[in-house]
Amino acid sequence: MNSKQPLFHITKRADISKKKAITIRLIAILAALIFCGIVTVALTGDNPLSIYASIFKGAFGTARKTWVTFQNMSILLLIALALTPAFKMRFWNIGGEGQVLIGGLAAAASMIYLQDKMSNGFVILVMIFASIFAGALWGLIPAFCKAKWNTNETLSTLMMNYIATQLVAFFTVVWENPKGSGKIGIINQNTHIGWLPDVFNEYLLVILIAVIVTLRMYIYLKFTKQGFELTVVGESEQTAKYVGIDVGKVIMRTMIMSGGICGIVGLLLVGSINHTITTTIAGGQGFTAVMVSWLAKFNPLSMVLTSLLIIFLNRGAGEISTRFGLNQSFSDIITGIILFFLIGCEFFINYKIVLTHKNRESGKEEQA
Amino acid sequence: MIDLVAFIPRAVAQGIPLLYGSTGEIITEKSGNLNLGIPGVMYVGAISGVIGSFYYEQSLTSKDDINGFLAVFIPMLCCLVGSLIMGLIYSFLTVSLRANQNVTGLALTTFGIGFGNFFGGSLIKLSGLDVPSIALSATSACFSKTLPFAGSVGWAGKLFLSYGFLAYLGIIIALVAAFIIRKTRVGLQLRAVGEDPATADSAGINVTKYKYVSTCLGCMIAGLGGLYYVMDYACGVWSNDAFGDRGWLAIALVIFTIWRSDVSIFASILFGGLYILYLYIPAGIDHMEYKELYKMIPYVVTMLVLVITSMRNRREDQPPKSLGLPYFREER
Amino acid sequence: MDGAVYMVAVHTLCYKLGISMDTGKSNDSKKEIAISFKNVSKTFGQVKASSNVSMDIYKGEVLSLLGENGSGKTTLMNMLSGIYYPDEGEIIIGGEPVIIASPKDAFAHGIGMVHQHFKLIDVLTATENIILGMPGKLDLKNAASKIKEICDKYSFDLDPYKKIYDMSVSEKQTVEIVKVLYRGADILILDEPTAVLTPQETEKLFAVIRNMRADGKSVIIITHKMHEVLAISDRVAVLRKGEFIGVVDTDRTNIKEMTDMMVGHSISLNIERPDPVDPKLKLKVSNLSVMGSDGIEKLHDVSFDVYSGEILGIAGIAGCGQKELLESIVGLQNITSGNITYIEDDGSETSLLNKDPRDISDMGITLSFVPEDRLGMGLVGDMDLIDNMMLRSFRNGKFGFTNKKDPRELAKSVVEELEVVTPDISTPVRKLSGGNVQKVLVGREIAASPSVLLTAYAVRGLDINSSYTIYDLINKQKKNGVAVVFVGEDLDVLLELCDKIMVLCEGKVSGILDGRTAEKDKIGMMMTGSGGTIDEQ
Q1: Whole-prediction pTM value?
Q2: What domains does chain B contain, in order, with CATH numbers?
């Protein structure tokens, strides 16, 4: 009847120093890089060092590549920043994809319908308002349902993604140009109406906006009343009510902001980078951003690093697939592996394993 | 008027992958694990089957040598193993390492879709074989073999007998799953784990085991949906991203059916029908844009179901109470 | 209070409550050990919940596990039931050390525990809950008839097909006990079983326990109520701060000895009680009724007045409307009927009906509230002291920003004045001990210079010194003319601290007494609804 003696059991760490936590994460990244290297070597037969060199070259090989890397990173970072206040409130907004798409759709609609009715400046102004409004609306709907009826937000924001995707698909056919091509093509290719102005070059505008939003989000979460309120709501709804915070209002307000920033990303994707819209324009980054934000522990400044890591590997893996004539989805596999390692390593930050009999002493040491 | 005899079999064919996906996810969610990696798992299931079938077909000297049993068995085994590995990754991270389920699921989907498209796009190059494209017509024919008499008993044969064996298997699995969840001891314990793992634990139920088994089983079932899609529906032709958002539609179905896999049999066919409805209504050909709006209907309806059930707040219709939350016994 | 006198008081109380003092001890000297702890320790983070406990439990006995809140009674028992696994030491059954790594192992050894917080699944029926985790084919019909048998045997009232979410608290407890009986447990652990029961139900439960003892089973009751210890148990084991103090036969001990073991030494409370100076009506609660979210009426037609410079104590068995009452006043409950009126210094009246906490503070009224659930409601565990101070004042900042300077000053002064033990003020409060957490909370609440101070179980889980700090703080507020409402559980404290004592019983007011003349047994009677007219007998 005796069950076997458990070899170890798991207890929650009382505390862990920042330094130790960072070390654990660095080890995880290193382990993941080695693992990815092995996978790549297995697939391509090339030597590992040249593979790591390729990854670096893919991300920072030329000035243009470096700019693109930073531009891509800025987009991912912006979406992650948008989702962060919602996550801090423990509202699982995985609807970033849809909120970006609908913002982009609003921008594209403004470009198409207003091109011959207004001057360029006004069109851009309308685009800005329209995309923010659309994104905010897309965020507000699940928030309203959550506040009012406690509707599961993970599932509702997920559904909103595909409603947005299908709306974009619908308008892709409506605005098809040329007819029968199945896509919209470059909008206002000749007049450039609604194209956001270049700052220095075509990449810097997005990067600048990302810098501004990062700093503002950091300040917002750390130093403002609204940031404080949403943190309290996330930590304990009971406490929030106790100090007179209107929980429903905070949820809706935060999601309006979250969706609004996603709307801006849509605006940038359509107005500044692509000048067109497709159903895949967000490219799954609404989901990737969830992980970027979570890995950064919802700290806007750390998010700069996590988004850079993801984009760096993404671009590097892209380079490898080009070099060896492999499919571009290779980068998704690499991203996936890195994420698995980083997700897994959080365990060693939050918990510790105590061996039952032997090594008890070392278990105790770890506690210190 | 819609030609139902033509429409329904196509709706069923569209619905079967969704049925597999939703049945798998229902089993998983009943244990409290919200696996958002299902779309990725279905890709992996499909491509694993394709890889198995590809090498099997390449090993044959002539297409006529094909052995019906092996042609079905090898891809299915590959598919199940591939999906199982995905299930194990998810379970290990969320159950053993207590990682956040949403994040893990999304990472799994990124990985799985990438894995599918990568091998779909690079399989020929990697294998070093000299073939123009992945078209597994011979194996596919074994998968899509219809029941006898399908062509000879008129409309009834077309409606009920004209599908490959995986379609019937999907329906059987859905029915069995519903029965097990509702009527057996295992099902009762599974529901208990999903509702309140601490209570289940104190009742002597091995929460970790239930979460692992249901998640892995769920993934394997969902993977078969991917296999059905590529081997039967798509006639053995792999094209990247063709599977599309069906994985997410499967997750929507879970909510739409309120966590009941038997209901999902009809709901899947309904969703499948909405997917192709545009072909069968008069305005369809002139206004292709409406097809996209029809495709939107499943998501809108699911959203409405989700909101309405939360408004009515009936206890039986709510998601499993611990859905999405990790469980740690010594938490204090 | 002198132990002997107290003993008499308890006997009287038990007599009046209809609880039998007959412990029916078997004089059988042949004692067979059912289970033993050997040097068992368990640590949570920095807290030693059990340290080096060794004790035996005999077959066919009722053992009371006595100790104050937080003395480690439940933790110790959770190691028997497989919820926790000991860090060190052994559990021995039948002479062999056993591993109880899971509740399943516990069942296998015939150990069944009824937890204080019921472990039942809401959406399932009573039968499904009872057979949950048991091997064999699922046969609900057969199970239900077996349950009926058990219910008939012990005269429980239970519908096997009723869903848990439709049940009352005592019905749920019945399900829990039947669950353990259904499994044929030999060792039955009950964690504070009477806290939620009426006296009649308690007597019924005790009858069942006696039957089980006669059957040769061991019953362990976790409690901190002396009269229950005397009424039911053969032996009593005492824990203090995680340490095993000793075990004594119930018929060879008395209240004084047990109290000494429990608290370390006899404590004469000697709480200061200054006379109220110039009391003025501050708060008027009239005909208040509140419906709980479960559709059960939590408060019924409650009326009372609170005066400035006075402490109104509220006595009652746990969960008979205290929480709802305080929450109604500060605006956290939906009120079915009645009114709550605040009286300004100039005598003008303001209704607090349908106002939320924000509205009330916007009206310039400062109600401070120390809730029962400190880390779940009053404070945020993961935030540091500064941010927790800011919870009350974050709206004061300029231009939408929070002002951290004042909260930092406040945190510093609270730490200094109340002698809060903490590494620094940027430590998350969940890392502090219970007493220090409470000091932080009370410190913040009185820093707002309230006109009304509401406290719920302000000294629960606190050591003696911290408790006195809290009493002093409350008295200081009283002297400053604050109207204080003090919800307490320890009658001795209420009797020494409060000017008036209102007794609640099942959501109704049984009476309001003068704190200086009220008698303890009378309050006890009123608490249990046995009537407030002790003179009758």
Answers
A1: 0.84
A2: 4-317 (1.10.3470)
